[in-house]
Inverse folding.
């Protein structure tokens, strides 16, 4: 039955006059990483609505088709294949988790359809091929930023520390990668990793690892995990008397809602801060709050940037000989690759030769309900 | 092992029947796999769905050998699948490098022979693990076995997470020979998988699995499995070595799960298909659900349930956010309406035959139909 409907859809799409541009999205709308998927989807929807309100791209309305992948690679394969072969999308936007972006990217690459990952920070994502782009920074850069922030003297905005311990979530490739890059950068610039402990994402009790970390007496603890565990870790660390500042990566966002007092004074690197005063940011935050009633996290901001960047690229791409007035996949890819100083919500985006976005990273300090920028590093 | 089992025929059967039973199904199998390969264009949505169905059918039918035919309760099938996936991808990636000097896909006879070899290696890896886990734990019964198999699946997942990154060709020289195979990519998954698979391989494997499962059940071994399921003490009393048969069932099921894992690891967009998180206990449960829904002990039932559930997740894509709620709801309704599963212990062809003949019920007495 599905096979039949699948065929029917592709026929109508092929015969239809090109009055609209179809953009595909795949993401974890259900599953353990659903919060990221939902934010990404909201950011995209908001961008598409804004584009259509202004008359679309090249006079054509944009239609967003999104499929849930439940956070599984096998489902990613199905979703991306369907987007490309049945829905005939101009480009694919997704995923948050890097391993899922790699899986989806391989299919997009094989079909010669451009893909933009809004927030996958693992370097391997864009290694998949020349049709794969991203609008966020990569983990080696994020690791470097946190290492520099920890070791830079206080008058340069850093913490002026040398001895750092790391607590790694073994379940997440993101955490494993970021921990490695942080350690590499730190040792290179004269810092020292004095202890490494690990946990499994979803654990409830971290006392064994924290006791060991406490005995090592680090000046700071770097915990590159997801916010769901961080709140627990911070509370338990404070309870056993660890006073060293806690450092983290962009997976920490939303930790403020759950961490309470324990997380105060901690630092994490991120793509932007909701509390920034740049007009784009203020405008985006207020519109997003109107739509969803929540403050936008960086997943939403990056997704918004990905869509706007795609719009920009489609507009720049030459329509060539295409009868329907929509540029070819190749033309869109070439335009994306030439992106220079594109002004997004998360900063100015320039695509480098690896199709990774070159843009600054921010270190945010958790202060009450706000998270002001404590440190900025440009690439 | 598989061939030995499928060749079990009564010694006094006339030659034409032996031929019909052994050669013809195999020929049909390959003709069918070949037809599927030709009929469905590569890289399409239909291909991907048919692939998912194929893998799930193999998993469900193989778990049915343990849970359905032998009456044990294993919930660690995804662990064997993981071993098969990693075992095979190591062969095509690191083995491919040793053989061809690069890690690309080779669309040559040598490339595909390597892939077939990798499937067998994947299956055997899972087999070996099945033997090691099964031998001590199959002396346990019921809940205890479930806990052991669940634990096994999780151990495999956690071990795979702790492995170092996959080696690039440029890094191969730094790591000597055999120790390369432990570079499995950690939590990110084996990030350089090549999509060797096609529907021909998938459905060839499906058909072989179905054939062996069916012939197995009709053989002496199968009867022993069934006797263990129906009454272990009685089985032991008539001289069935229950532990041995349980281990046999377990090892055979592990082999096919390993083959399913190899197919999975080389699918379209194989990049990170082999990812530890992909083989967590949720997947094990999905397979158990397929077996229970199809009817414990029914081979065609397991296949039918695997097909239905895979299609169901796709059809329910239309309702987006409510997909998993709808899916679970349908399962609950199904189990209330038909607690025996779709087919109970019968096979799909019994539905058409049962009224016509009551004399020709030799099979049903053995399979426990109507009990």
């Amino acid at each position: 039955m599905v096979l039949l409907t699948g065929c029917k859809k592709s026929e109508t799409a092929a015969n239809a006059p090109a009055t609209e541009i179809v953009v595909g999205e795949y993401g974890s709308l259900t599953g353990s990483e659903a919060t990221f998927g939902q934010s990404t989807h909201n950011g995209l929807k908001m961008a598409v609505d804004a584009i259509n309100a202004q008359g679309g791209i090249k006079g054509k309305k944009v239609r967003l088709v999104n499929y849930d992948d439940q956070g599984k690679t096998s489902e990613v394969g199905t979703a991306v294949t369907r987007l490309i072969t049945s829905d005939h999308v101009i480009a694919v936007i997704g995923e948050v988790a890097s391993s899922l972006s790699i899986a989806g990217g391989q299919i997009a690459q094989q079909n010669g359809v451009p893909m933009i990952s809004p927030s996958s920070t693992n370097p391997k994502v864009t290694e998949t091929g020349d049709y794969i782009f991203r609008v966020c920074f990569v983990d080696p850069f994020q690791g470097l930023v946190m290492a520099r922030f920890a070791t830079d003297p206080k008058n340069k905005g850093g913490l002026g520390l040398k001895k750092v311990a790391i607590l790694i979530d073994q379940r997440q490739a993101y955490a494993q990668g970021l921990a490695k890059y942080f350690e590499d950068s730190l040792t290179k610039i004269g810092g020292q990793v004095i202890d490494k402990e690990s946990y499994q994402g979803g654990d409830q009790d971290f006392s064994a690892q924290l006791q060991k970390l406490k005995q090592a007496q680090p000046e700071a603890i770097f915990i590159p995990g997801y916010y769901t565990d961080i709140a627990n870790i911070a509370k338990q660390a404070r309870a056993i008397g660890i006073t060293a500042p806690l450092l983290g990566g962009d997976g920490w966002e939303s930790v403020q809602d759950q961490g309470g007092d324990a997380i105060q004074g901690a630092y994490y690197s991120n793509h932007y801060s909701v509390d920034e005063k740049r007009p784009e940011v203020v405008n985006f935050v207020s519109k997003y709050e109107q739509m969803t009633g929540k403050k936008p996290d960086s997943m939403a901001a990056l997704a918004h940037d990905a869509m706007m960047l795609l719009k920009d690229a489609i507009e720049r791409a030459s329509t060539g000989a295409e009868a329907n007035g929509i540029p070819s996949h190749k033309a869109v890819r070439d335009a994306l690759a030439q992106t220079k100083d594109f002004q997004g919500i998360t900063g100015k985006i320039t695509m480098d030769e690896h199709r990774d976005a070159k843009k600054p990273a921010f270190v945010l300090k958790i202060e009450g309900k706000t998270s002001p920028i404590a440190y900025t590093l440009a690439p | 092992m598989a061939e030995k089992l499928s060749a079990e025929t009564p010694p006094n059967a006339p030659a034409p029947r032996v031929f019909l039973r052994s050669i013809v199904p195999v020929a049909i199998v390959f003709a069918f796999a070949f037809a599927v390969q030709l009929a469905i264009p590569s890289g399409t949505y239909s291909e991907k769905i048919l692939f998912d169905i194929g893998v799930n059918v193999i998993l469900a039918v193989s778990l049915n050998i343990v849970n359905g035919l032998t009456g044990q309760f294993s919930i660690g099938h995804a662990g064997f699948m993981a071993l098969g996936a990693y075992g095979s991808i190591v062969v095509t990636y690191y083995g491919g490098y040793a053989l061809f000097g690069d890690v690309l896909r080779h669309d040559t006879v040598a490339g595909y022979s390597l892939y077939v070899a990798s499937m067998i290696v994947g299956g055997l890896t899972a087999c070996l693990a099945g033997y090691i886990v099964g031998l001590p734990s199959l002396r346990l019964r019921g809940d205890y076995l479930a806990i052991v198999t669940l634990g096994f699946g999780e151990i495999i997942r956690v071990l795979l997470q702790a492995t170092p990154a996959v080696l690039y060709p440029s890094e191969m020289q730094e790591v000597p020979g055999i120790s390369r195979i432990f570079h499995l990519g950690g939590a990110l998954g084996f990030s350089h998988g090549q999509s060797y698979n096609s529907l021909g391989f998938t459905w060839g494997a499906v058909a072989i699995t179905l054939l062996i499962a069916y012939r197995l059940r009709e053989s002496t071994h199968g009867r022993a499995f069934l006797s263990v399921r129906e009454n272990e003490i009685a089985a032991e009393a008539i001289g069935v070595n229950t532990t041995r048969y349980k281990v046999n069932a377990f090892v055979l099921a592990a082999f096919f799960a390993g083959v399913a894992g190899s197919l999975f690891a080389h699918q379209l967009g194989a990049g990170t298909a082999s990812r530890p998180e992909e083989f967590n206990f949720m997947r094990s449960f999905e397979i158990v659900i397929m077996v229970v829904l199809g009817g414990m002990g029914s081979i065609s039932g397991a296949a039918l349930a695997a097909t239905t559930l895979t299609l169901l997740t796709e059809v329910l894509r239309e309702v987006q956010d409510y997909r998993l709620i709808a899916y679970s709801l349908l399962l609950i309704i199904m189990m209330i309406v038909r607690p025996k599963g779709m087919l109970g212990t019968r096979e799909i062809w019994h539905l058409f035959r049962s009224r016509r003949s009551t004399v020709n019920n030799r099979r049903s007495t053995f399979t426990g139909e109507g009990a």
Notes: Residues 1-16 of chain A have pLDDT under 50 and may be disordered.
